[in-house]
Amino acid sequence: MNTGSLALPALEVRNVTKTYPGGTQALRGVSMRVEPGVVHGLVGANGAGKSTLIKIIAGAERPTDGSLLWRGSPVDWKRPADAGAAGVAVVHQQSPVAPGLNVLENVYLGQGSPIVWRPRDRSREFADLCGRIGFSIDPYASVAGLSIGDRQMVSVLRALARGASLILLDEPTASISPAERTGVLGAAQRLAGSGDVAVLFVSHFLDEVMQICTTVSVLRDGTLVDELTEDSMSVERMVAGIVGRRLQAVEESTASRAVGAPVLQVRELATAAMAAPVSLEVRRGEIVGIAGLLGSGRTTLLKAIFGAERRVRGSVLVDDKSIAASPGAAVKGGVAFVPEDRMSQGLIGSWEIWRNIAMADLEHLSRRFGVLDVREQRARAQRACDELGIVAPSIDTAVRDLSGGNAQKVVFAKWIYKTHHVLLLDEPTAGVDVGGKADLLELIRGLAARGTGVVVVLSEFEELLSVADRVLVLRHGRLTGEFRPAEVTVGQLTAAVGGLA
Question: How does pLDDT run across 120-147, given as a tens digit for each residue?
């Protein structure tokens, strides 16, 4: 660990408690120290209090009790600008940028008008900032065309340009490619290695936490339950702290399910984006996994089955009845689709939990003449919260205020109380912590046990093998293999999707 010349912690959290007006206690006397020159990990299940703690550190929320010390002195930040002026910066999973500006203008946004300072005046300084994190990019490139990973790196550069000495990386690798992930992790290590910057790294990828963190704080139910150092760090101990039980997400289910007659038949399905027509069959109660790399056509295949792709050829049959190539026809025919991007495609962020759950089944949640039955809608939402374990102050909470796992459960709740025969799931555990993944995988098994045919795309092959009855390999838009989970290892499946087997 490199602490430079600073003896005091960059940040100290002392007995911080946060209770919301509805009575929800998000934090219960949390204390921790973030030292300069280290990458400090923060892990915990959805609803453990990570987001609330980050908001308090960043000045977006104020604690109900307890205090923050910044470089040894008490602080009372009333707004994010106060924390930012002190040297705190937050880089979120979806980093906010100004898409109409170029990279250089985004990095120095708010530090004088570009009309006043000439770009070449900043070029050497910009190059030095890029060197600090080992990142290279055209300073005049339009930010609108950048990938999520590059936008995050631009946000890190902006934080450094403003003199940040504590950078909070909030789930930075959840939605980026493996190459970009390597870049972000390397940047975090280089920043901490300089000795004058502290990094608070929030991630549900425990292998990443193990790789780059010197210290890890584990939250569960708003309480700090463990703090690991290099000498005591292990995935098993982190998981035990996070969920208080064995990780079920990577264990093969022993529950027996009756598999019935074919419920979904896909025949010679093709689109302009698919290299070859695809045919497959799913039986009642069966979970069929799709394994493939980014760009293999996994999402395209699910969207084509759902009728959400253009110029779809071939046929889709549900219970031997042909379904027209449109989302409306698919839903009417008993097909449900949970997309990967839940906030833009599966939910309306500003709507409450109860309205989001109701919107897929308004036909059965209305009285005569189309009058909405609000009481029944709210009752269904409360039932979903109770049965699925959705953690929220109330069903009136806007879904944009929920953690990733709880938001995903709301998406599931839209469909599981509506009659459907086929469920298409695109990365249902993306951006969800360890405990939330276990809950969602168990939910998928339960839906199949009711007789639903499930097609699921999962990038984490341990999860895919733990939940699927069969796994189909998709490579460059073609189905190239089929495996039974009991007959294949993660390594063999990885080789197959990569064309090595």
Answer: 667 788 888 898 999 998 888 988 888 8
Query: Residue 38: what are its φ and ψ, rounded to 5°?
Result: -135, 160
CATH code at 11-245: 3.40.50.300
473 CB contacts (<8 Å, ≥6 apart)?
Answer: 291, 292, 479, 480, 481, 482, 483, 493, 496, 497
Start and end residues for every CATH 3.40.50.300 domain found in the chain: 11-245, 260-334+421-501
CATH architecture of 260-334+421-501: 3-Layer(aba) Sandwich (3.40)
pTM > 0.85: no
Q: Which residues contact 321 (CB under 8 A, 6 or more apart)?
A: 333
- Between helices 434-449 and 404-416, what is the axis angle to 10°? 10
CA angle 438, 250, 306 (to 5 degrees): 65
Q: Own/partner pairs for 148-151, CB < 8 Å, 24+ apart?
A: 148/93, 148/94, 148/95, 148/175, 148/176, 148/180, 149/176, 149/177, 149/179, 149/180, 149/181, 149/183, 149/184, 150/180, 151/95, 151/97
pLDDT tens for each residue of 237-296: 887 787 664 334 344 443 456 788 999 999 999 887 776 888 999 999 999 999 987 777
Q: 75 near 69, Cβ under 8 Å?
A: yes
Q: Which of 158, 163, 423, 404 is nearest to 289 (CA)?
A: 423
